[in-house]
Structure formats: structure tokens, C-alpha cells
Design goal:
uronate isomerase, domain 2, chain A; about 425 residues; three-stranded parallel sheet; homotrimer; about 50% helix
Amino acid sequence: MQHQLTDEIDVALASLPLIDPHTHINPHRPASETLADILGYHYYTELAHSAGLSREEIEAPGLDPKERVARLVPALVHLDNTVQVSWLMEMARTFFDFDEPRLTADNWEALYDTAATRMQSPHWESTVLEKSGLEQVYLTNEFDDPLEGWDTTRYVPCLRTDDLVFRLNQPSVRDRLAAATKVELSDAASLGRALAKLFERFTERGARACAISLPPDFEPMPVRDHEAEVALSRALAARDLSADAIETLRRYVFWKLAELCDAFGLPFDLMIGVNRTVYEGGVVGGQDLFDGRTSLFGYRRLFNAFPRVTFPISVLSSGLNQELVSYSWIFPNVVCFGHWWYSNVPAYLRCDAQARLQAVPRTKQIGYYSDMYKLEFALPKFNMYRRVLADLLVEDFVYARGWNEEEALELGRQVLRGNVERVFGRPDGK
Amino acid sequence: MQHQLTDEIDVALASLPLIDPHTHINPHRPASETLADILGYHYYTELAHSAGLSREEIEAPGLDPKERVARLVPALVHLDNTVQVSWLMEMARTFFDFDEPRLTADNWEALYDTAATRMQSPHWESTVLEKSGLEQVYLTNEFDDPLEGWDTTRYVPCLRTDDLVFRLNQPSVRDRLAAATKVELSDAASLGRALAKLFERFTERGARACAISLPPDFEPMPVRDHEAEVALSRALAARDLSADAIETLRRYVFWKLAELCDAFGLPFDLMIGVNRTVYEGGVVGGQDLFDGRTSLFGYRRLFNAFPRVTFPISVLSSGLNQELVSYSWIFPNVVCFGHWWYSNVPAYLRCDAQARLQAVPRTKQIGYYSDMYKLEFALPKFNMYRRVLADLLVEDFVYARGWNEEEALELGRQVLRGNVERVFGRPDGK
Amino acid sequence: MQHQLTDEIDVALASLPLIDPHTHINPHRPASETLADILGYHYYTELAHSAGLSREEIEAPGLDPKERVARLVPALVHLDNTVQVSWLMEMARTFFDFDEPRLTADNWEALYDTAATRMQSPHWESTVLEKSGLEQVYLTNEFDDPLEGWDTTRYVPCLRTDDLVFRLNQPSVRDRLAAATKVELSDAASLGRALAKLFERFTERGARACAISLPPDFEPMPVRDHEAEVALSRALAARDLSADAIETLRRYVFWKLAELCDAFGLPFDLMIGVNRTVYEGGVVGGQDLFDGRTSLFGYRRLFNAFPRVTFPISVLSSGLNQELVSYSWIFPNVVCFGHWWYSNVPAYLRCDAQARLQAVPRTKQIGYYSDMYKLEFALPKFNMYRRVLADLLVEDFVYARGWNEEEALELGRQVLRGNVERVFGRPDGK
């Protein structure tokens, strides 16, 4: 009976058109062109590599897409237990009517060819969007992205700021900033003008968020203009910066971004806790890891200083999720945001989502985003989340609290979509 | 069948009269006088504020209780998913026969008036105690509480020592200590005498525990008298103390308290891991948060130095609960104590309680306390815990281990009440 | 139905002969000789002590085995909720046909006598191995163990290196090393030769792993020979070493061991996160605890530097297990290894194992080891794990993914045994 009700709620929620509030979609090529675009997702290449396939095999320069798939498929036998591979099989079934239980050296080629044919259709993108129930997809745009050449009401720009905060000491980043804004960096004031220009351009093109990923040891705090200027002028003079000076510059730029989010009315997505290039020999996208010794306590100054800025927060561990539940329960401007990366596994996703549903105001939880690079991934990922959500709604609300089915559904809809609109704005931009 | 057995055990456990071993009850006004005393609980005001209600609305000076409720009720629509609001609805149903599924702008006034009428009855307090199965309630008393004017065998004093340890450098705290003990602070010896006087007065009035809440970075260690005296004399001379001197004083006073617990045979309740005033703009009681980077390792010197003092320990995260399970399994004087604050949510409570039941001696777990400010809260909070406990008893002991129902019940009774008596003493003081 | 299928899978998995890849078995006396060998396991003595039995009672010198049991049994009434005591009862039932639900002062003596009789049989060891389905048992050998006098294809040597890394500054350890290798320590080169001799001897005798347990704050990094030599020469001259010099020596020896694992093709078992002698007054084996503030991030240099060495990793908390899941997902040379010590409780074991099964390549998880000191413990411990494993296979793979029973079983077999062979080698040494 519980399974039946869960199924009903799952189906009912699946009829709700989705806004996917965080992806890495390239709006010029949103859908896959061959199966290699799917199997080339870093979750598969890194797992295949972890299970023994060499990086050279996977990332050989100029590798033909079909050959790349041919090399990856044999590794799947070592990975078929993973939820990531279950997404692959679900995509194969749903989009390409593949009815084998596993993808093997014996059967992959037929799938590859079917996929290639369908993906060549001019309607492929809209087919995927429709089958996946996707109405709108948020992007991750570099600050110097021209934001032109696509429908920004379907593929919504978001300003990604990792380079600005963490690599402004590099001349190439400063050159890109100058080129994008026509502002020559010379001091703190010009830096402020350049950043403001970015916000102007992005918001004019309908951007809905500023976003950044942050290492475990980053601690935002305000920095005085003249302190930042000392560091900036060393960088501009091409002199080496001390670790302290680099940190000063990072904090300064980050704080400026928060001020601009305030001024421009943009939420500031914080993705907290990732160390980059931990595994130096890893495949592209498969080198970063988290450190459990991370706390939101270091963000208290930020949350206190910007009460009008909403901070949708993503974390990488259940330990930090418990902090996030508490911070969202207390701080009006802190919102739970999806289930990120290493946390996006049912075992963790379930307990993390359960605690949020039990203790955080229902208006302050954005249930899920796909983090996808290609459109096809939204379907299996949202299905996975929706199944967990339906199960929790039945268990904790219908059974434990006596809610009726419609009340449970309404909570599900709010978490799945309503709060995306509430925090980031409606699809029509209102 | 599992549900049926869980129900049976739940009902059987509910017939056991409770001792609530940690509350913030004011013994002069233990029960609520209007619904504002219930809806004014910081869990509701902070959640309402987190969901968008301004602090000024909630905490306007001189606000009429009915008006306060009128302002808070509309916010509940954003919170009705939380377990905290489920407690509210359970209190409304049980104490006031309120049969609406939700409290809304349309129906709250009738509840308010019914509650006001019933609460005015001279029997209200005993009605609540009886309906809740409460036999005895432990308090949290400031060190200078005169401890007079109520039945201390029903409302049992406990000496709360946060001010002594963390704010003795403030003249107002020293003045209160001098006034309460008639001992003028001049050196370490006089400080020792003053603290001993407090223990004498509290134990004479039947106090059952010394208690304190501690920040994540506090690390108890012994301090020599003369080191403490250097810090103390600076404080007495109204000179600024360095951070080190403040820490020295804190450690010194804390260690003295442990010595006095030893001398007076009192357990020392440690509530570990809360940072105060993290959210500066929060409502009263809604400003504190925990930091996941907390360990019991810092308490090893204390646990080793005081083998005869029992330390009932409360923690705020599942991560630290796993440490607590291990420390209680090893240290004879470490006891698991309830499910505190941000951990008091079924998702966390269940896994924390499950691990304790599976790995800590049954004599060393005090299942639950309400932490309540008004008597009405014991009922829904203990009901929540008891339901989880009954479920674990059925799943892990009746089914997984083949225990019979009575054996499972006996474990439940011990955790729910027997160990309260074992650690803190019987209700009759023996 | 779910229970029925879980039972079927559990039974099917139980027919698979086991290799136990980490124990503390003494190969000269692998099985128990009296019940005191079982009840003397530190899990029982430390829990009994934690529940109130004095260390003096438990560890009196020259204590008769039967008297020791007589003293421990009464404490069991305080511990019978623990999973550890459930192992005891399962051993009593399975090996000695004891059919009482509890071991008490009234019934223990009969069990003691039955056990003593059976254990005296010359076939006892093989009876236990057979009943437990044990084909091969890995040991933990001190570096100067002569490795002689037993069948090393049944009881497989592993080189335990804690003393070498953490206590080489002690003359007694250096004397043992010199005696074991006939190499006199004089400089870094001779140290390297001595360590290489150990690896030669151990691998000649069929050793399958090098192993070490590590405190939370240890961070492996390469040290130059001459830096190590400065520290080593101070130690050799019997002069005190600074904390930095001790750490330098530790890192140097540890790194050398990793180099030797590489050269000799041995996996390097890392048991990460234990602080020794936290409870100074504890019973033997019951003094060590973990610190939740531990991360694998500190091991990145090691994992990057030795891509050909496999690191089977054991951790003590669910927080660190989540890191381990991510590190095994990314690093080819990182493998999940069992459920260690304080984590070896169903509540934690289940969620830790679930996340591994969902996100780590199936080839990279070694499900379980017993960590036993006496052979009888493998049976209840592996049964506990297998039950959890069967339950997860049914829930997450048969039900959630639609796998058939044989596919689920195959995953179970791989985790339970196949990967032991894959990582450490087949029982026949091939």
C-alpha cells in the first residue's frame, strides 16, 4: 500500500514541468550529438578510470566519439552497481528504446547508432526537453560569456564567478575582465566598476543568479579598499603575491560580488566545500574532492552582512547538510539548494532531504538541480530525486502526520518547482 | 504487524510516569497562560522569522499576547511541514480539543480563547502534568536563583553555570556571585569558597545536577591557582583581559566546578558544541548555531581526571553523536543524554538513538528530555521520542534479535526513566 | 516477501567460503581454549568496565580463566542490548548449543564447562573454521615475527608497521629491528636496507599486505634523506627528539614503507583515525577513540605519489566513510575496506555499506573483515554483515533497480570474497 501511494505521488509530481536551477548546459549545443556526449560525462570517465581504465585511453587527443564509447563500455561491467550507471541505462531505455539490462561490448554499437540517428534529428533537443518535462534550464556562464545566440528565457544565464574570486591574480583573467567590460583595472574603484558592468550585462540578459564554488577553508570577510589595492597593485605590476595577499584579494572580490548581488537583486548560489585538483592524475572533471572538516560557521559574517541577499547553498556531505538544515532554520537568507555531486547518491540524498523536510520552512528548500552538461541527464536524475521525495512525503507526511495525498503533493510541488520560482523568479521573468 | 507491535509498545511506554531531566521551566509559572506562551517558543518565532516575518513584528515591546499570536499565525503556512509545528498541532488537539488540521488566520482566535479559558483554571498546571504523565521536572537555575517559593521535589533545581565560566570577567556577574554567596572575590581561594557556597545551597535545596553549555572550541584543562589569579586580579582591577587570560579564567572556573561536582556528588551535564549569537539579527533564542567541527577529544583530560563524576553529554550533530556513542562505550563516567535542539528532529533522532541502543551499555543512556520552557511541550516532544524508541525496539530487538515484547519494553523503560533515576537520583531524593 | 528474498540471498551468500582479510589471530593458538578467551575480548571487558566493573577486577594478574568469566558475566545484564553481546549469544548457541536467551550468574558455568570440553578437542580449530565457512585468515604480524611454525597458506602473514612508523625513536624498537634484520641502523641508507629486509622476509613467507593504524592528525609526505638522518642520528645518540623531529622520522619511515609496497607489489592497508590511550584508566584494548575531525585530504600526496600501490582504507566514522566513498570513486588506488571497530555496528555499517554499493565501482569494495582475536568471532560478525548486505542487495538492487536474484548475489559474492582475491591475491597464492 505504501509503495502504491508512493507510485501515485511520484507520477503526479512527474506531471509538473520543471525548472532546472543549476546546470552546465552549453546553450549552443544543449543536447548530445552522439552517445559519446553521454558516456563522456565525467561521472563515467572518472569511475571507469577509477576502476582501471587509463586516462590516456579515455582522453586521447582527437579521439573519435565512437572509439571513445568503444573504450569506455568494457569498463561498465565494473560500475554497473553504481547509481550513475543506472542513469545511463535509464537514458538508453527512455530515449533510445534500448531494452538490454546492461550495456556491453556486444550490444553497445546498436545503441550508439540508434542514438546517433535520433540525435541528428532537428527536433532532438525539443524531444528531450519534452520527454524530461523541462520548461527552463539555468546555465553556468563564465563572466566574459557574450550571452548571445540563444533564447535566454529557455536557457537562463547565471554568472559564474570562480575565476574572478580565485584567479584574479592571473593576468589572463584580468585581460578577460578588461575585454569583457572595457574597464582597465588600475585600482579598487576600477575593479568595482568592472564587476558592476558584468552584473549589468548579465541582468540585462535575464540572469537569475550569481554562483560560485568554494574550497573548504574559504572564509568570507570584508576587506578595506586600500588593503585590497595593495594586493591588486602587486598583481598588476606582475609581482608575486604572498598567500595572504592572494587571500585578501579573494575576500575582497567575493565581498564585492555579494554587494552587487544586493544591488542587483540576485541570489548568490554558494557551492561550499570542494578542493580542486586533489587527484592530479585524474580525468577532466574527476580530480576534485571534498573535505569533511568544513563548516558554515565561517560564513556568518556574510549572512549577517547581507540580509537582503538570498544564499542558496549546496554542500557535499551529510555532516555539512545537518549544519545547512540548522542555518536555513535560523537565517532568513539561507536556503537549502539541491543535492550536490558526491551527495547526489540515494543513500545520502534521502537522509539529507528528509531532515530538510522535517525542520526547514517549506519555502526555503529548493529540492533539486541536475548539474548536467547535456540535456539527456535531467530525466534520470530528477526521476531519482522525485522517487526519494515521493517516498518521504508518504512516510513522513501521509503516514506519520496524517496529511492527505493532496497536501503531500503540494509540499512536493513547492520543493520541486515552487521554490525555484520563489527564489529565482518565474519563467516569464516576473 | 510491525506497526501494530510498535503501537502496543508505544502505548505501554506511555503509561510510565516521566521525569523530565532537562527543562527551562520557570517553577513560579510552569504552565502557559495564553497561547502566546506556546507560540512564543523560540522554535516558532525563529522559524517564522526565518520564513520572512520581521523581528520587529515578533518582538515589539509591550506587544499584547493575542496580537503576538495574530502576527505569528499567518507565518505557519510556511512552516507546517516542520516537526516543530506538528508539536503545536498536537498540543492544540490534546489540550484544547482543536480539531482543525492547521492553525490559520481563520481559526486561530477560537483556539486562543479556549486556551486562555482553560489556562486560567487553577488546575491547569496539574492537568497538564497529568495528561503528559509528568512526575518530576528538572529546572535550569541561574547560580543566584534564591530557589524558594516552589515545591523543589516536583520542580528540581539544577545549577546552570554558563555565566560563571564564560562571563566571570564581567563585573555584573561577579557582583551577582558576591550577592548570592556573601563572599567577596579577591583571589582564587575566595573564588573557590564562593563556588562551594553555591553547591551547598543548591544541594541543600535538592539540586540534582550542575549544567553548562559549551562552545565548539572549548577545551577543559586544569589551570594552576596562581595563573588563574593573575587573570582574576586583572578582572577585579577592571582592566582588560587578553583572550588568553579570559580562556585561563574559563578553564579554571570550569575545572573548579568539576571538582565541586566530585565533592558534592553531582552529575555535570555538558551540552557541547553551541556557538552563541551567530545570527546577530535573530529573534530571542534564535541566534545560536553549531559547528560540525567539534570533537569530544578535547574533553579527555576532564573525563580522565574525574572518574567519580558522571558526565551526561548532549550534542548537536549526528557526527558528534557517533563520537558520543564511542566515548560512552569506553569511559565509565560518560553517559548519552537526550537529543538536543537541532538534533531533536526525527531524521537525526532516529539514527542517533539507534546507534546508542546498539552499542552503549543500556544503563548509560538517558533517552530524552524536553528542554521545554512551558509544561505543555513535554507531551508532544516525549511522544515523538517514544514513537521512535518503540519503532527501534521492535525493529532491532524484537525482530532482529528475537526478544519478547516484555524484554523490549523493559529496555524502553530503562532508557526513558530508569536511567534518569540511576544517574540523577530517585524522585523521593533517595 | 522482502524478508523472504533477503533470507534467500543471505543463505546463498553464506555458502561462499570466506577469506577474512584482517584479523589479530595468533596462528599458534587460533581458537579459544576456554570461554575466557571469548569473554576476554576487549569489546566485552571494556563495555563491562564502562558499565561499572573495575579494571582491577577484570585484569587482576594471574586471574584464573573461570574466575575471570565469573566476574564478567554479572556485568552482561547491563550490556545485553549491545550488538557485541548478541555476537556472544550467537557463538554460545552455534558452537555450544546453549539455548538460554541470556548468559547469567545462574547459567554461565554449564556453558563454561561445555565450551572447555569442546575446545580441548584436537579438532576444535577445524570445527570452528568449518562452521564459520572460513577458508583463509589474514594475520597482523609484528615486524620481528619469525613467521614460522604454522601453515602460512591458511593463516596468511601481514606486516604490521605501527611500531616502525610511530616508535622508531624508542631504542627497544630499533633493537628489535636490528635483531630481525641483522642490519645495524646508522643512517637513512641502513634504515632503508633494514625495512627492505622485512619486506623480503614477509613476502617470502606469503605476506599479502603491509598494514598500519594512523592517528587523526597524521599527514603523510615525503621527507628528504638528510632531514630524516638528522632526526635519526639524534635518536641513535639517545638524545631527545623535538616533536618536529619525531614527526619527520614518522613521515620518512611511512613513505619508505609505501615505496617498498610499490617495489614488492603489496597493498598498504591504512586504518585511519584512531587516537591511542585517550582513556588512560581503561582496560587493555579499551583506551583508544576516534576524532570526527579527520579527513582523507591529508593523504592526497600519498595517493598521488603511489599510483601502483593499492590502499585498502578503513575508517571509524560515517562522516569519514562519506569521504572514503568519494575518494574510492575518484582515485584508482583507493579501495573501501571493511567496517572498522566503532563503525562496526549495524546502524553505521548499514548506511556506510549502502553508500559504497551505490557509488563506488563494484571491484573496489572489500566488504568485511572480522578484526577478531579468536576464530570463533568470525561467525557472528560475518553473519551480521551478511544480513545487512543481503538486505541492501534486495532493497537497492532487486527492488529499486530490477536486478534478478542471481545478479544481486553475484554483487554480494564479489564484495564478500571476490574483491579480497582481486586486491590481495587468491588463496593458492596465484
